[in-house]
């Protein structure tokens, strides 16, 4: 098979490129051991571990900024936004420690309390409407829940222990590739015995679960509502907890598999506090920037404004490097793609290098997204009817939370879901609102704030398979702002700028196929041994030397880093066999 380069473009191997990244004085070299496509957090983590393992590594990023969807951008002068990803929790602790991310500038603001759900109702006796505030102080949290149900207040600590038990048991599976099925079932006895080691994390998880294995199986396969209804009776609490079962996923709390999405969102930890979420100083871009500093300190080369057009395929059918959009070739022994499986195998890899059946399977991967992200600059702090601002204008504890709007009942969430399934942006959307500038003053001018609105459910295409227009986006933005206004009068008048990103915009700007924030749905048919496909769950593609290292591979989405770490270990292990 001939080296694949776009027709009409001269073959220009071994071309040095002058500085492509304002943060590095290093020029792009013509030859590396490993080239990584995309500087999302997983690609950067992979580069650090490959470099530590002795491989000369380069990371090539299409955009002007590092981080993939975990970026900080000054969209409106003076206002710095976590433009896509906006909270940190899932980053694996061993990566945090190995790469010394604190030393390299990562600072996190912990949130406590962490969840605020205001009601839309008339207050009684002149009092404000009710609200639900959840935090680490169980005494206060039980008092809050007790406003709606004393029974729920009593069992809530037991529910937290139940979730923590199941979440902790899954950690060994997050920190290792899936079981090596081909190794266990094919090849020599020696290879099969070697592959037995891949069972260790699965056995470890099973032992941790012990008698809780049935509970784990139920949670990951059942609708979240089946579990939540068994524990609780009050709608505001159930609906608030149910948001974690659908956030980022095109599903309903009443759909099978939504229980796993809930578990996925509570299995992280931050500063050794399990299940905690926090704001990164300067925005989420602080995460990839700290990883990049760590990787560079180890010797990795990282470049922005460097767009890869195609993976180079050698005469033997294996990956030999990449060709950039300007025709420059960068040769390497292996290539890792931090792009989605669709972008990797349908756009970057020459189609004649892939089996036809594999291409067909890639076409079946589900990337459906329900998410629109709206970033808003405001000139004053939102003032909620359920928790009015004080005379001093200072932020209250509820302002630092994930603020759940239109989450009074599961019925509201369900109605929003079904509208989205019919090509209509939800008329009463589920809104997760955060105001990180309450804890991080570096994000906005004095007295002003940045507001993140993570919204569901919005389709990729509107009714009639029609693409979004600017008018559609403005209309939906007005719908969202009208709902926020009902909870916090004066919000609309405080807006000084906005940035609306529909699923199609998330795809266009960040390369997220379908706008899916996880690089592919976190449904049961696309997890563990089947992520993204059963044939490539071990990060290796059908093209020798081409690997996946992004969230489209095991263990999935979120700013976790496990896929970058595991893929790097896979590459290093394969190098030892050469």
Structural notes for this entry:
It holds the Pfam family Amino_oxidase. Its main location: mitochondrion. With 578 residues, the protein is an alpha/beta fold. The protein has three domains: 31-69 and 286-366 and 522-577, FAD/NAD(P)-binding domain; 112-148 and 370-459 and 461-501, Polyamine Oxidase, Chain A, domain 2 (Alpha-Beta Complex), CATH 3.90.660; 160-272, no CATH class. 34% of the residues lie in helices and 17% in strands. It is built from 19 helices and 20 strands. The chain has helices at residues 41-52, 93-98, 138-146, 150-174, 181-185, 189-195, 200-209, 213-221, 224-231, 235-242, 258-266, 286-297, 341-348, 356-363, 410-421, 470-487, 491-494, 503-510, 562-577; strands spanning 31-37, 57-60, 72-76, 79-82, 108-110, 115-118, 131-134, 269-270, 273-274, 278-280, 301-303, 308-313, 319-324, 329-337, 371-378, 402-405, 430-434, 449-456, 495-501, 546-548. Strands 1, 2, 11, 12, 13, 14 and 20 form a seven-stranded mixed beta sheet that branches. It has a seven-stranded mixed beta sheet with strand order 7-6-16-17-18-15-19, sandwiched between helices. A hairpin with a 2-residue loop joins strand 8 (269-270) and strand 9. Helix 1 packs parallel to helix 12 (286-297) and helix 3 (138-146) packs across helix 4 (150-174). It starts with 30 loop residues before the first strand and ends with a helix. Mean pLDDT is 92; it is low at 1-23.
């Amino acid at each position: 098979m001939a080296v694949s380069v776009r027709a009409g473009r001269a073959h220009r191997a071994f071309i040095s490129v002058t500085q492509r990244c304002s943060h590095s004085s290093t020029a792009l070299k013509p030859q590396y051991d490993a080239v990584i496509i995309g500087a999302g957090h997983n690609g950067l983590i992979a580069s650090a571990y490959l470099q530590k393992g002795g491989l000369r590594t380069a990371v090539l990023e299409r955009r002007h900024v590092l981080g993939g969807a975990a970026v900080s951008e000054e969209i409106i002068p003076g206002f710095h936004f976590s433009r896509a990803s906006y909270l940190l929790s899932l980053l694996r602790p061993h990566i945090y420690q190995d790469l010394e991310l604190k030393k390299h500038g990562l600072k996190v603001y912990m949130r406590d309390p962490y969840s605020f759900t205001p009601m839309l109702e008339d207050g009684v006796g002149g009092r404000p409407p009710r609200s639900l505030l959840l935090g680490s102080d169980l005494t206060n949290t039980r008092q809050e829940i007790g406003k709606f149900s004393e029974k729920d207040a009593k069992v809530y600590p037991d529910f937290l222990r139940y979730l923590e038990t199941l979440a902790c048991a899954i950690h060994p599976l997050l920190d290792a590739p899936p079981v090596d099925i081909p190794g266990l079932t094919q090849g020599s006895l020696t290879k099969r015995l070697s592959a037995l080691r891949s069972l260790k994390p699965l056995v470890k998880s099973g032992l941790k679960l012990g008698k809780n294995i049935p509970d784990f199986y139920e949670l990951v396969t059942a609708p979240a509502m089946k579990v939540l209804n068994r524990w609780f009776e009050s709608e505001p609490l159930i609906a608030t907890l149910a948001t974690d079962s659908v956030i980022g996923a095109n599903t309903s709390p009443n759909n099978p598999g939504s229980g796993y999405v809930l578990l996925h969102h509570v299995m992280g930890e931050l500063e050794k506090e399990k299940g905690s979420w926090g704001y990164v100083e300067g925005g989420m871009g602080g995460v990839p920037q700290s990883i990049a500093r760590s990787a560079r300190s180890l010797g990795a080369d990282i470049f922005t404004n460097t767009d890869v057009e195609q993976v180079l395929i050698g005469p033997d059918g294996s990956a030999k490097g990449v060709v950039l959009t300007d025709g420059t070739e960068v040769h390497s022994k292996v290539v890792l793609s931090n792009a989605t499986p669709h972008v990797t195998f349908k756009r970057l890899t020459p189609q004649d290098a892939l089996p036809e059946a594999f291409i067909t399977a890639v076409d079946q991967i589900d990337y459906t997204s329900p998410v629109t992200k709206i970033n808003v600059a405001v000139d004053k702090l939102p003032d909620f009817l359920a928790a009015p601002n004080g005379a001093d204008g200072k932020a209250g504890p509820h302002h630092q939370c994930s603020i759940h709007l239109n989450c009074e009942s599961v019925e509201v969430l369900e109605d929003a879901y079904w509208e989205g399934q019919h090509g209509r942006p939800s008329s009463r959307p589920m809104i997760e609102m955060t105001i990180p500038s309450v804890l991080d003053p570096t994000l906005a001018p004095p007295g002003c704030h940045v507001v993140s609105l993570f919204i569901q459910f919005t389709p990729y295409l509107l009714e009639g398979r029609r693409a979004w227009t600017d008018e559609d986006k403005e209309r939906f933005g007005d719908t969202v702002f009208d709902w926020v206004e009902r909870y916090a009068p004066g919000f609309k008048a405080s807006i000084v700028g906005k940035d609306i990103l529909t699923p199609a915009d998330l795809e266009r700007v960040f390369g997220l196929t379908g706008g899916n924030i996880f690089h592919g749905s976190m449904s049961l048919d696309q997890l563990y041994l089947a992520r993204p496909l059963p044939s490539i769950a071990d990060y290796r593609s059908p093209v020798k030397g081409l690997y996946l290292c992004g969230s489209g591979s095991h263990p999935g989405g979120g700013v976790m880093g496990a896929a970058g770490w595991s893929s790097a270990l896979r590459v290093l292990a394969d190098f030892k066999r050469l």
